[in-house]
Amino acid sequence: MDEGVVRRTQYWNLSVAHTVRTGATGHGESLTDLENYLLPQDRARGSGLFGWGVAHGLAVTATSGSPGVTVSPGVALDAAGRTIVLAPQGLAVVERSLDPLQIQDVPTVPVGSDGVPVVTTDLPSDCLLTITWREVAGENSLANAPALLHAPWLRLVTADGFVDGGDTVVLAAVTVDAAGGVGALTPGPRRSVGTPSGRLELSAPRAAGGPPLRVDQAPVAALTVTPEGDVVLSRLGEQEPEPLLTVGPGGDAELSGGLTVRGDARLDGDLSLGGALTVSGAGRFDGRVGIGLGNRPPSRLLQVEGNTEIHSGGVGAGFSFADRAATSLVSNPGNGERWIWYAKEGKARLWSGSDKLAVTPAGQVGIGHDHPDFLLDVNGRIRLRQASESSAGLWLFQTDAAADRAFVGMAGNDAVGLWGNVASDWGLTMDVGSLAVALKGDLWLPKTGGDAAILTHGTYFNEGQLTPNNLKLQMDSRGLIVGQRPFEFMIGYSFFRSGGGPFGHLGFRNDFVRLFGVDQEGHAFFAGGKGGYVTDYFVNAAGDTVEQGDVVVLQTGVPVACYGSYDGIPIPEVDLTDRPYDTRVCGIVADLVAGASLPGVDPRMHPPSEEGAEEGPDAPEHPLARYAGSTDDERTKSLEGNYISVIRRRWFAV
């Protein structure tokens, strides 16, 4: 019932203090001391203070393609705390098919200085080479008594289904071919002996100059674990331990002092620094790096916070960054694989193969070149796109007014225009398809003498006296006292010709040829073959007295005789569109004649009046005004005009 009790023989005489029991020691007493005390104590110490695995040596070697492996001398510890020693000149068991509990008649092999060879034939392809604690029966050369010899068991077992529980220690994973040749040799689940502890204290020798002179050792640092799972390296001294390095459960590391890296540095986790970081060699960080974050973990690969900026200086100063699709650093990018922000000649520049953008100290931005003269200077065309706004365009802001005053851009999908923000309306638009231009305000055109002529639809005080829906051309204004200044509205063409230059030399000049004009008095000028005529009334109203010089409509050739009664005498229509420069229908009243001198009535021009109106040359005589009717080329309709009507005077225009 008490087989698990650790016990040893009591050799002191309990009845007499400080005396040893008399008599010889028996086998039972030795068995108790060894089997029930020394061995259990040693195994408990081994399993309690250490984790099982390889402690020293036990290297495995092989020749690729050749059968067999060799295990060098060494020491291991199994999970039960038993020490496995493969010692030179010792023994080992390499037979595979043995009863693990067999002690007698177990074949052994000697251990050489180079170790023990193990056969790899007749095995599956994937195996594990293991070492197991074992004792076998042997000879005792010092006494006439049986002996147990320590002979570690080296064997190759199938990797499939192997349970790595610590009763046997794995030395290597071996892959063999059908002939036993070694194809691969890897560590597999091999492990080293560990030391479970909550505190590891490190000490170092020290010397004191005295007096007296002294040499000893003193604790310098301690590696401990907190209840929260932090691993802390602290400096030990006369005061409280000072944490130097803290590694959290998630792998985050915190340094309380400076870090100097003289070689390559690689960090797979986050690094938080409360002090300075000095790197003399190349630095490599696979995890996130936070600078100036305190105890907060960084949220990006590199996160810097504080009351200062990040600086880059020198000949190659700048900030280089790659396209997110690029898989490597491209030194000379041609398609935007890498970009650099840098400064040169006082200008900040964005580079990718060449400078794409430049910013001057005055805030001027150059796009496509590096010498901007304005706040925005673009070398090439720009495009303004419609986004969430109603149209694409450009707002113009005036500082004095502190407001947007105008907009240049699209007035919808089909027109471009100018917007007046005070009037809140489009002043000018152009249809992008038809190119029709619409103007909502007045059109001001400069005159040669100053001021401007205005084409306006504005209304005036006397607008009720004017024809509705009118459009006016205002050449000048007349004051209440001062008379009208002279002006003339002209239509003509320019003429570039040679003429006398300065100082009498031959030169060239540009003249204007007037074809039509209206002056401030209402006089009209018409250029023609005879020098033109100026008329006081260009159009006569029906019933006006016809005067010499008035414009009327005539029929060329033989005078046409017309008949009718009173004021119903018709004049035949004449087609004004069948030929250019129709000379049949234009003329000026040249003379006034009496009715008796008119030609006779042509009955073909009009049927006799059903009312019995008088006909023929003896009919009543009536003077005529002017004719302005015409038809189109196809003679399909009449274009309404102002027919010459009868006036009750005995004079006629011819």
Overview of the structural elements:
The chain has about 650 residues and is mainly β. The protein has five domains: about 50-185, no CATH class; about 220-310, no CATH class; about 310-325 and about 335-385, no CATH class; about 395-440, no CATH class; about 535-654, no CATH class. It contains one helix and 49 strands. The strands form 15 sheets. Strands 15-16-17-18-19-22-25-26 form an eight-stranded mixed beta sheet, with no helix packed on it. β29 (about 345-350) and β30 (about 355-360) form a beta hairpin. The longest helix is centred in the first third of the chain and has 23 residues, at about 25-50. The radius of gyration is 61 Å and the shape is elongated. The termini are far apart. The model is unreliable at about 530-575 and about 580-654 (pLDDT under 50).
